[in-house]
Amino acid sequence: MGSRGTGLISLVGAWLLQRQDHSLKLWEKIIERRIHAHDSLLNAAMEMRGMVALGYVDANVDPLRVTYALLSKAHFEDFFARFTGASLSGSAWQTIAPGHEDASRDGEMGRELT
C-alpha cells in the first residue's frame, strides 16, 4: 500500500513539474518575441537620429543638417518601408497597458491646423 501511495505522489509531482516547465517555456517564447519586436522598433526609430550635413550654413553659422531618412525621396521610401515592416511585424507583441485618453484631444482630431 505504501509503495502505491509513493508512486502516486511521484506521478502527480512529475506531472505538476512538467506542466510548470511547459508554462515557463511558453512564457519564455512570448517574452522573447516581445523583446524582438521592441528591439526592431527601437532600431528603426534610432535610424531617425542619424544626421547628415547638407554643406550649407545658416545665419548663425551652424551647419544645416537633415535626418538621413529625409535626405531624399528614395532614402525616405527605403526608411519608411523598413520602419513600417518593423512596426507591423511585431504589433501583436508590442503591448501597452490600457489607459484613458485625454478628453481634450478628442475634439482636436478632425480639426485642421490654421
Account of the 3D structure:
- By secondary structure, this protein is mainly alpha-helical.
- Helix content is 58%, strand content 11%.
- The chain has 3 helices and 2 strands; from the N terminus they run H-E-E-H-H.
- It has helices at 2-46, 73-89, 103-106; strands at residues 51-57, 63-67.
- A two-stranded antiparallel sheet has the order 1-2.
- Strand 1 and strand 2 (63-67) form a beta hairpin.
Shape field: rod-shaped
- Number-wise, the strands total 2
Radius of gyration: 27 Å
Q: Which bin fits the share of residues in helices? A: 55-70%
First CA to last CA: what distance? 87 Å
Strand order of the largest sheet: 1-2
Contiguous low-pLDDT stretches (5 residues minimum) are: 103-114
Tell me the fraction of residues in β-strands, as a range.
5-15%
What is the element string, with H for helices and E for strands?
HEEHH
